[in-house]
Amino acid sequence: MKISVIIPVYNAEKYVSKAVESALQFHEVEEVILIEDQSPDNALVICRELALKYNKVKLFQHPGKGNHGAGASRNLGIEKSCCDFIAFLDADDYFLPNRFDAERELFKDPKIEGVFNAIGTEFLTEKGKEDFLLNINDEYLLTVNYPAEGQEVFKGLLGQTPKKFGTFFTLDALTVRKSALEKNRLKFNEELRVHQDSDLIIKLAHHCYLKSGIIDKPVAIRGIHDDNRITKIIKYSPQYNQRQFLFWNSIYKWSRKNRIDPDAKRHISLQKKAFELSGKKGFSKTAALLAAIIKDPKILKTKYRFTYIQF
C-alpha cells in the first residue's frame, strides 16, 4: 500500500511541521504533498524548508500563486499525487502511530474503496478552546456509533438508519483509493469555502464502498486554536445558516443528477429547503414556511427545524 498524503496549507506556520512529520513516520507514505494557498503568515517559507529537508515532501502552489481555498488545494493535490491511495491531513492536525492500522488489513479486499476512522481533539490555545466550546461543543472523539460499510454509511450520514449513526467522520481519518475518485469523477466543490469536506464525504459514501476501521479510539488529532474558521461561526446565526444552505444546495444539485434512494433524495431536499427558509424574513418567511409544510410536513422534523420557524 503506497499512500499520498495531501495537506492544504493556509496560515499554519506554527503547525505544519508537526503535521508533515506525523505523516512521514509511516513507511506506506510515499509522498507528502503540500499545497500552499497564499498564506498571510510565514507558512510558505516553512513549507520550502520541509521540502528541502525531506525527499518525500513535495510543495506546490496554485497557478498564479493566488488563494483558492481548501477544496481547490485538495483537488490540486489529488491531481499531483502519484500513489494508489490518498489520505488527507489538515496543516494544523496530525496523525497518530495507529493511523493506517485498519487500512493495512481492510484494503486487502479489493471491494473496499475507502476506510474511515475516528479522530480526537487537542486544544492548542485557550481562545480556541473557548470558541469551540461556545460554538461547536461536540465530543472529544469524532466518530460513528457502530461499524458500518457500503450504503449503510451513506444512509447513516444522512441520519436515515434505525440507530443513530453518529457525527461526520473527517478527512483526517479517511483513506481512499485514487481509482475510486477518478472512476466516479469525484472532486471537492471549489465553490464551498467551508463544508467542502462533508460535501465530498457524502458523495463518496454513495458512489464508493466505504468501510469503518478504528472507531473507538483516535487515529489522528484535530488541533483547535484561535484561527479555526469553523469555530468563529455562531450556530444558527445568519452566517451559519447561509453556509449550511450552500452545503445542502450542493448536495441537492448532485442528488438530482444521480440515482439516489428516494428517501435520501427527499431528506436532502428538505434540508436544503429548511436552510433556504432560514434566510427569509417577515411575511415572506411565514408564507414560504406554510407552503413548505403543506407540500411536505416532514420539513418540521428536519434536524435544523428551529433555525427557520423563528420569526
What distinguishing features does this structure have?
311 residues, alpha/beta, Spore Coat Polysaccharide Biosynthesis Protein SpsA, Chain A, 2 domains, 7-stranded mixed beta sheet, 3-stranded mixed beta sheet, globular, disordered C terminus
Write the layout of secondary structure elements.
Elements: E1 3-9, H1 16-24, E2 29-36, H2 43-53, E3 57-61, H3 70-80, E4 85-88, E5 94-95, H4 101-106, E6 114-116, E7 118-123, H5 126-135, H6 151-157, E8 174-177, H7 178-183, H8 196-207, E9 210-212, E10 218-224, H9 238-256, H10 262-278, H11 282-295
Parallel strand pairs: 1-2, 1-4, 2-3, 6-9, 7-10
Antiparallel strand pairs: 4-8, 5-10, 6-8
Helix pairs in contact: 6-8, 8-9, 9-10
Short description:
Keywords: Glycosyltransferase, Transferase. The chain has helices at residues 16-24, 43-53, 70-80, 101-106, 126-135, 151-157, 178-183, 196-207, 238-256, 262-278, 282-295, and strands spanning 3-9, 29-36, 57-61, 85-88, 94-95, 114-116, 118-123, 174-177, 210-212, 218-224.
Task: Explain what you see.
- The chain is α/β, with parallel strands linked by helices.
- It has 2 domains: 3-232, Spore Coat Polysaccharide Biosynthesis Protein SpsA, Chain A; 238-307, no CATH class.
- Helix content is 39%, strand content 16%.
- The protein has a 7-stranded mixed sheet, sandwiched between helices. A 3-stranded mixed sheet has the order 5-10-7.
- Helix 9 packs antiparallel against helix 10 (262-278).
- The longest helix is centred in the last third of the chain and has 19 residues, at 238-256.
- It is globular.
